[in-house]
């Protein structure tokens, strides 16, 4: 393989005494147009190359990403997203706020989730995009209007939290019931995704895959998205290595609700760097 060939070539060019190293110093190898190539070519065992590491994709993604405006889904749902990658390079959390109106003022319900993700490879189909696998392991739901509250309380089964116990404005953990069948969410949930990052007008932008228009689930690798949702804007760095508790999600929600409309979100982005941080909820029904 390439590694064996590289190692062999390095041994073949190993200097045997100080004079050879002195000659290399006097006559550096020409590698025009490739600074890294030159650094490697003009090194040896006595003076190995010093390469400056560039941030990995997980470093770029780590932090909080929020919707710039009220977003619309094909099934007539309106929402705002708050997504966070943690610095450990594998954990994420999310907050999805759903609304009854296209201005995102009339709250319907909120989903809080967390899980893990795995970076796979550069997308062979979409330039600058990377393929990921996301796994949702924990979920909480908070009803915010009477209709959703009644809808959740009509279910008497064992697959959406504690039956008939839902209260307005009170979140309930549905992890132990494997999600919430009433809302079409099952845990654990696995999604095959694509993500793309860009710098636009001085802002860091994150694009997450758009679900297929035919309604096919992205829980199948062959249905991995080939287009993107509305971009998210970065507004904070994650300082902690471990995932914050669901309690921090509640604090984030209170902050975010004060900045939920399009005009207020724009000004809120300047402040959210001081907020507690979250990340990405890739649930097949809602993305």
Radius of gyration: 24 Å
Q: Helicity, in percent?
A: 10-25%
By DSSP, the count of extended strands is 12
Counting DSSP H or I runs of 4 or more residues, the number of helices is 7
Strand content: 25-35%
Poorly predicted sequence stretches spanning 5 or more consecutive residues: 1-31, 51-56, 238-287
Distance between the termini: 41 Å
How many domains is the backbone divided into? 2
**Largest sheet geometry:** 8 strands, antiparallel, barrel
Global morphology: globular
Structural class: alpha+beta
The overall average pLDDT, rounded, is: 71
Strand order of the largest sheet: 1-3-4-5-6-10-11-12
Question: How are helices and strands ordered from N to C?
Answer: HHHHEEEEEEHEEEEEEHH
Outline the structure in words:
The chain has 287 residues and is α+β, with helices and mostly antiparallel strands. It has two domains: 40 residues, no CATH class; 218 residues, no CATH class. 21% of the residues lie in helices and 29% in strands. It has seven helices and twelve strands. The strands form two sheets. Strands 1-3-4-5-6-10-11-12 form an eight-stranded antiparallel beta barrel. It has a two-stranded antiparallel sheet with strand order 8-9. The protein is globular, with a radius of gyration of 24 Å. It is found in: Membrane. InterPro entries: APCDD1 (IPR042425), APCDD1_dom (IPR029405). It is a single-pass membrane protein. Its main location: membrane. This is APCDD1 domain-containing protein.
């Amino acid at each position: 393989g390439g590694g064996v060939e590289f190692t062999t070539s390095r041994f073949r060019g190993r200097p045997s005494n100080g004079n050879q190293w002195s000659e290399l110093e006097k006559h550096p190898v020409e590698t025009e147009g490739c600074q890294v190539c030159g650094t490697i070519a003009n090194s040896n065992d006595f003076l190995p190359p010093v390469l400056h590491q560039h941030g990995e994709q997980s470093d770029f993604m780590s932090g909080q990403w929020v919707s710039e405006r009220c977003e619309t889904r094909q099934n007539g749902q309106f929402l705002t997203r708050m997504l966070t990658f943690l610095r450990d390079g594998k954990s994420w959390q999310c907050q999805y706020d759903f609304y009854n109106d296209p201005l995102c003022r009339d709250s319907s319900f909120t989903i809080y989730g967390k899980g893990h993700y795995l970076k796979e490879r550069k997308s062979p189909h979409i330039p600058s995009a990377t393929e990921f696998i996301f796994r949702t392991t924990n979920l909480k739901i908070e009803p915010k209007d009477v209709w959703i509250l009644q809808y959740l309380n009509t279910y008497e089964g064992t697959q959406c939290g504690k039956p008939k116990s839902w209260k307005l404005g009170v979140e309930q953990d549905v992890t132990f019931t494997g999600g919430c069948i009433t809302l079409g969410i099952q845990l654990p949930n696995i999604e095959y995704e694509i993500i793309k990052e860009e710098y636009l007008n001085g802002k860091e932008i994150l694009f997450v895959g758009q679900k297929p228009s035919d309604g096919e689930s992205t829980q199948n690798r062959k249905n991995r998205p080939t287009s993107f949702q509305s971009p998210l804007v970065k507004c904070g760095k994650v300082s902690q290595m471990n995932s914050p508790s669901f309690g921090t999600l509640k604090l984030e929600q209170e902050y975010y609700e004060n900045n939920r409309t399009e005009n207020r979100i724009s000004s809120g982005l300047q402040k959210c760097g001081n907020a507690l941080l979250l990340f990405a909820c890739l649930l097949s029904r809602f993305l």
